[in-house]
Amino acid sequence: MEETKQCVACRMDIRADATKCPHCRERQATGEPMHRGGHGRVVAGVCLALARLLGLEVALVRVAFVLALVMTGGAALGFYLLLWALTPPSVMGKAPVQRVMGFVGRVGGAPVEEPRMERRV
User: 53 near 61, Cβ under 8 Å?
Assistant: First the structure.
């Protein structure tokens, strides 16, 4: 028997691996936080992370980004760099901004907090 879960919007039973509900077309949460790592990463992995988050093909996100670059005269590059700075390279990794803030905190003498692991049952 196939595993199922409930849609977050309409509460109908859907396949456990579904990214969109076939009844109401609502996007389902994957349970995995946004990160840049994985197979298919080309430059910095931002388009791959967005594609995973939105449930789209990575090629479609890359084409949209190139079109945004052309239409905004390169201003979309700032958005890309911002997403790169705020997105961790792996599920358990820290984003570049978090690493810099951690370094600044250690230099400034702030107490260092250990990362907490969440157990899901």
Answer: no
The answer to whether the CB of 6 falls within 8 A of the CB of 16 is no
What is the phi/psi pair of residue 20, to 5°? -135, 145
Query: Measured between alpha carbons, how far is 105 from 98 in angstroms, rounded to an integer?
Result: 10
pLDDT in tens, the chain (121 residues): 578 888 878 888 888 777 778 888 777 766 667 777 777 778 888 898 888 888 788 899 999 999 999 999 989 999 999 988 988 887 777 888 888 887 777 776 666 566 667 777 6
